[in-house]
Amino acid sequence: MSGFEGEKLANSFTAGDAPQGKMISPAFRIERPFVNLLVGGGSHQSQTCVNLVVEGRLAHSAVGRSTEQLHWESWYVQDLTGHQGRIEIVDASSEGWGHVLVDQIEFSDTPRAAVAGALERAPDFGTMVLACAEPESATTGGDARPSGVAVDRIVRHGCGTAAIDGELVGLLQSAEMELAPGEEKRLTFVLAWHFPNAAKGQYYASRFANAKAVADYLLNQHDRLARQTRLWHDTYYDSTLPYWLLDRLHSTASTLATGTCQWWKNGRFYAYEGVTCCEGTCTHVWNYAHSHARLFPELGRSIRAQQDFRPRASGGGFHPETGLVGFRSNDAYAADGQCGTILKAYREHQMSADDSFLRRFWPRIKKALEYSIRQDADNDGLIENTQHNTYDINYEGPNPFVGSLYLAALRAGEEMAREMGDVPFAKHCRAIFELGSLRSQQWLWDGEYFIQDVDLRRFPQHQVGRGCLSDQMFGQGWAHQLGLGYLYPGHMVRSALRAVWKYNWAPDTTPYNAVHKPFRWFVSPGQAGLFTCTWPKSDYLPQGTLYKNEVWTGIEYQVAGHMIAEGMVTEGLAICRAVHDRYQPELLNPYNEVECGDHYARALASWGVYLALAGYQYHGPKGHLAFAPKITPDHFKAAFTVGEGWGTFEQTRQGDRQTDRITVRWGKLRLRSLAFELAATQKPMVDGHAKDKRRNATVSIGKNRIAATVAFAGNQVRLTFDRPVMVVAGETLQVVA
Question: b/e for 615-634, b at 16 or more Cβ within 10 A?
Fold first, then answer.
């Protein structure tokens, strides 16, 4: 035993811990605000404990921690002052640790030093405020206390504190008002909280001292905050896209406000994969996520700056000597996460107003890409070694999942190198990419989709082999979003997606899962879903890629977005509708798409579907914006975001005329070029061939004409402005072609 004071203590231990009993003190009057005591032994609530009983009622209780070391407990008893109490030491257990130790029971004005301030340091300690924009005045008369509640236990308004186990009743009233028949008045209340003691602190604690400061800010800024919030809501839902689809694609952004994500005191955005599940803003799971980086570009840049390209020595995941990006901000390598880091860096560059982000991190981005290139021993565009990945396993040999991400990373690296003037490295990336694309077609194409080249006798576990992997074209979907073009011939890409739809999509997952049970169930019988992997052309691999029989919404969104980009709109929307139906409120929380944990980050892939529907392309530093709607292009309207603002894009077609309008609702938009897709019928045919003999497009902001050079290529019209154009909130840029 340890931790006791003096020479004596109460101890109910006997051999076998079988005897039971109770020791009760004489009654005493409570006169000090604290009772301090040392307790040890078993942790059985109400069975191996020491209690404070006040006038026949249990007021406080403490137990040991299944150890012979005594620890301090302090009971706050000021609210019991004047009452009669007794101490009871109870042993009512004969199980393991069926005894109790008690020492140094004392009455005090303060808690023991060993525990002083412990409450204030607890992670869930903080302040809360309930406030009203128009509270009652201090002179308001009347007795509004709840029935049976003493006046001295009511806080009518203002600030106050009370013990956690106290019985004060909060009562907040608005000013009195009269309503005529049919009249309405609106009152604004604020519930604010401030819990600063997270392990790494809270960013909001650097802005606000307590919950009162938060409430004051909200009340003072309420009109502006409410106006801007409603402006985004109204802008987003003022769309030609189906309402259910708008709901579904936007709902996952709520993940940013859950336990999945943290915003540390030093400004770092940090996240789990799901709520408290798998820490480290994991590079491979967050490969799928787009909502955060497109809606709040600074969050995407924060992850790159404070994690992926921040040296390990200062708490990041970047290894300056090798270029490795630890996939959980650590020392571990994930092949898909390493390649995806390059793609995310290019996305963050494109979502910036200028090239300062790229200039700052280019040496580390290049180093990280060189790390992936070193895994490609022959520099032939195929990574053939052991490849840890998001399925929590290792792939062996060339495969389209890691392979497509690698090819896309090479293309992104090429583009970034050219922007940085590093022409030799750009050419190096291009050469490896072209060879890798060719080798992938030669070695991995089975005539319908891409497969893995692996010796299953040598590596019998967790491989794909000849299976049809839903994620096989993951890198190509990324390439479309970043404007990198095709990694493989277009007909092969579309064939692979059709195979995924043919073999992996199930309008009812029940029959397949009855035979091939998933490791975890994310769909219910009768529901539709997209399986991770199937084997339509070979024997089913019972030990094949992990999670093969599961349905993940992150993969579903990833595939749906790519399908839509390739013109498979019906198929893509069917997948999204399956997710939406699966997460109807009567079945599940519609804002909590589950995988390995609640509010799973992979589901943030949903915004990729939204971008594909609009045919959206953006490069902030170049000032380029493009749209090519894949659904109802004759009348399309949807919100868009850019590096410095957001607004509405609208396209209408009438006869041989197409009108495109870009309205900025918040912030600003810098432009040097625009591109739109024209209807095939808008291009006149001469001798069976489309001829680019058209009148010039006209560009205007309000009544002001904007000079632009117009070029037609295929069904696309591209406008390059003679000088940079700035569109600010409230303005509309119109193009008629």
Answer: bbbbbbbebbbbbbbbbebe
Q: What pLDDT sits at residue 140?
A: 42
The distance from CA 143 to its chain's CA centroid, rounded to whole angstroms, is 48
DSSP character for 572? H
Q: Is 322 left (phi over 0), alpha (psi -120 to 50) or beta?
A: alpha
Query: What's 92's domain CATH number?
Result: 2.60.120.940
Q: Which position has the token pair 């620890």?
A: 71
Based on the structure, what is the number of domains in the chain? 3
Which residue ranges in the chain fall short of pLDDT 70? Answer: 113-118, 135-168, 682-695
Integer angstrom CA distances of residue 435 from 29, 431, 438: 88, 6, 5
Helix (H) or strand (E) holding 60: strand 57-63
Burial call 208-235: b when 16+ CB within 10 Å, e when fewer: bebbbbbbbebbeeeeeeeeeeeebeeb
Q: Looking at the domain assignment, is residue 323 inside a domain?
A: yes
**Cα atoms in the 13 Å half-sphere on the side-chain side of 619:** 18
**CA 201, CA 225: separation in Å to the nearest integer?**
25
Find the domain containing 570 and state its range: 241-610
Q: Specify the pTM.
A: 0.82
Q: Which two tokens stand for residue 378?
A: 């022959």
For the record, the structure tokens of 419 come out as: 């922007």
Burial 107-135 (b: 16+ CB within 10 A, else e): eeeebbeeeeeeeeeeeeebbebebbeeb
